[in-house]
């Protein structure tokens, strides 16, 4: 079994974050994007993450500035985690 099965399973998938005006919709750039967990360099558990393209991932990780308010970003992230978890459950990964 892979060391990080959910991280591996996220590669090549459509982005579930889909931030309007940001998402590049390119599955070739997708990885598992962890939710911020309150501290610099701290990541949430793989089960509390979403599939994200490189552009959405840059916004989530704070590498690129955005005009979106944090409350809007939280909404996108919560819905993305739910969409991602539904995929994992359907495929038996969760």
Structural class: mainly alpha
CATH topology: Erythroid Transcription Factor GATA-1, Chain A
Radius of gyration: 12 Å
Order of helices and strands: HEEHH
Question: Main sheet?
Answer: 2 strands, antiparallel
Count of helical regions? 3
Quantity of strands, as a count: 2
What is the mean predicted local confidence, pLDDT?
89
Tell the overall outline: globular
The amount of beta strand, in percent, is 5-15%
Distance between the termini: 14 Å
* Corresponding CATH architecture: 2-Layer Sandwich
Describe the fold and architecture:
This protein starts with a helix and ends with a helix. Helix content is 36%, strand content 9%. It contains 3 helices and 2 strands; from the N terminus they run αββαα. It has one domain (5-90): 2-Layer Sandwich (Erythroid Transcription Factor GATA-1, Chain A). A two-stranded antiparallel sheet has the order 1-2.
């Amino acid at each position: 079994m892979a060391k990080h099965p959910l991280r591996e399973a996220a590669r090549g998938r459509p982005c579930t974050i889909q931030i309007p005006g940001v998402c590049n919709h390119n599955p070739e750039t997708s990885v598992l994007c962890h939710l911020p967990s309150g501290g610099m360099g701290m990541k949430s558990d793989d089960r509390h993450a979403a599939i994200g393209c490189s552009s959405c991932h840059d916004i989530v990780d704070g590498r690129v500035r955005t005009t979106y308010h944090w409350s809007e970003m939280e909404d996108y992230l919560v819905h993305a985690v739910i969409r991602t978890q539904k995929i994992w459950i359907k495929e038996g990964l969760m």
